[in-house]
Amino acid sequence: MRNAIAIAKKELYLYFTTPIAYVVFFATSFIGAFFFLSFTSEFQRRSLQFMQFQAPEMLERMNLTDMIATPLVLNMGVILIFVVPFLTMRLLAEERRQKTMELLMTAPVRSGEIVLGKYLAALGVLLVVIGIVAVFPALLDTYGSGGGVEWQTVAAALAGLFLCGAGFVAVGLFVSALTESQVVAALITFLVLLLTWIVGWKAADADGVWHDVMTHLSSVQHLLSFSRGIVELQDLVYFVSLAVIGLFLTHRAVEARRWA
Amino acid sequence: MIEVSQLTKRYRDLVAIEDLSFQVEKGEILGFLGPNGAGKSTTMRILTGFQPATSGTAKVAGFDVFEQPLEVKKRVGYLPEIPPVYPDMTVAAYLRFVAELKGVPRRARRDEVDRVAEAAKVAHVMDRLIANVSKGYKQRVGIAQALLGKPDVLILDEPTVGLDPSQILEVRDLVRSLAGEHTVILSTHILQEVIATCDKVLIIARGKRVAHERLADLQARHPGKSLDEIFLDLTSDLRTAAPGTVPVRAA
Please, are residues B183 and B2 in contact by the beta-carbon 8 Å criterion? Predict the structure, then answer.
């Protein structure tokens, strides 16, 4: 564990001395602000409409949590598909290209610790990304009227977003272990993550077993119930197993390199 | 300190080293000579646990490289052919990271980093990004990294490549000063380097051992010849059988 932390510290150092972390934070805040503004203006438009039509029962049903905060978090899931490949592409691919893998592999460190350290560092950056997303509900809570946001629901949504990201990072780390090129690693990770997202669209057309299989495979489907404030075991299992399988395969890939 | 017996490494149909056996005593400096592509780097990678051998055994300080790799890695400082440095780190941050990786205790870390920086003469570039220092400095940072944690065994793969003549002399002095306390294997294809620094010489050609003895004994066995000629003689009868390899001019 001590060794894993040493590696995580080095990766964090590199994230923050190169532009990578800052670009990720910028993209998150920019796109987050975009969603935030469009959801709030939509909210405004509707509440004005209902006031004009004198429909108080409709007005009562509108709240900041369901109409702005949780859709925002769900939409940020899409942003993770773009951001995570960027975070993970360098992790192992660059070590091989720069021949620094030789340093790590000849230091008294297990390959599992190398993989874990890199994973923890990426999770650290991911945590900041989630923190940036959390700023938007906090703004609503501070400046919104009518009781602000329902924090339990928002917290569940944010936790779901983090778990989703943690699964995605493990996938990206694995892809990064397979190639020496950062660009190839980023592109393939992006494709795989996008696939887990769009498989949900296709599920709507499928019948029977296929419908169920595709729904369960879809990452957006599992993020959906989190974003409604519901923590279900199957969703938890989906993201955690994505992370575990990703890390396991990464470890195998790193070990296999020795024998190549 | 180092025992290698019948070590063989094959990459698919290419034989990198074949049935290589040698020993290095504690405190000895062994010059590891051979033309390019002779299998020097492969041997060193096996000794450091970076790659497994196809067959045969290698032991460092009594620990089998394959069976107990972590014990071996704790005792070996390794400078690969290409210095394993991160261009986006400063020299100081890099050395601190490697010290932590090698398990140098937190309290001793600063002193240890200062010590190796002094020994490898990189103390005045500590705050510069590795990307911005010259090739010679990258090589020296690589040497500094290998010295961290005072390992019993140092394995240096062509440590003077990319250095200017005065730096080469400094590195030779540094290596010489390590004798006694550390056991050193130093690979090179420069004969002068071996003459200047090593006790014993191990010459391999095309993956096979062609000589392993004290320098004086080697010269005594080939009277009237310079070391350059001996080296060419020893490596050339095997080289004629290898198409496409370019003879190496000893510097």
Answer: yes
Task: State which residue of chain A sits closest to B99, comparing Cα positions.
Answer: A6
The separation between CA A141 and the C-alpha centre of its own chain, rounded to angstroms, equals: 23
Among B74, B89, B100, the strongest candidate for a mutation testing the A interface, having the largest count of A CBs within 10 A, is B100
Block residue for tokens 């779901």? A160
Of B133, B60, B48, nearest to B94 by C-alpha is: B133
B-side interface with A, Cβ within 8 Å? 45, 48-52, 70, 73-74, 76, 78, 80, 82, 84-89, 93, 97-98, 100-103, 145
Q: From chain A, pick out residues whose CB is under 8 angstroms from the CB of B97.
A: 6, 9-10, 13
Cα separation, B134 vs A77, in Å, equals: 44
CA B239 vs. chain centroid, Å, equals 23
For B88-138, the pLDDT digits (tens) are: 999 999 999 999 999 999 999 999 999 999 988 899 999 999 999 988 889
Instruction: Give the containing element (helix H, strand E) for B57.
Output: strand B55-60
Task: Single out the residue of B84, B78, B51 nearest to residue B184, CA to CA.
Answer: B78
The verdict on A14 touching B (C-beta cutoff 8 Å) is yes
> CA-based Rg of chain B, rounded to a whole angstrom?
18
Exposure string of B111-139, with b = 16+ CB inside 10 Å and e = fewer, is ebbebbbebbbbbebbeebbeebeebbbb
Q: Which one of B51, B88, B101 has the shortest CB-CB distance to A17?
A: B88
Q: Where are the alpha helices (DSSP H) in A53-110?
A: 56-61, 64, 70-97, 101-106
Q: What is the pLDDT of residue A162?
A: 96
Per-residue model confidence as pLDDT tens digits over B170-217:
888 888 888 778 899 999 878 888 888 888 889 888 888 888 888 878
Q: HEC states along B71-133?
A: HHHHHEEEECCCCCCCCCCEHHHHHHHHHHHCCCCHHHHHHHHHHHHHHCCCHHHCCCEHHHC
Cβ pair B171, B143 in contact under 8 A: yes
Query: Of A23, A127, A25, A31, which is closest to residue A79 (Cα–Cα)?
Result: A31
User: Does the pLDDT of residue B249 top 70, yes or no?
Assistant: no
Provide the β-strand partners of residue B201: B31, B213
Checking if the pLDDT of B161 tops 60, the result is: yes
The low-confidence residues of chain A, meaning pLDDT below 70, are: 146-147, 260
ipTM: 0.87
| Number of residues in chain B | 251
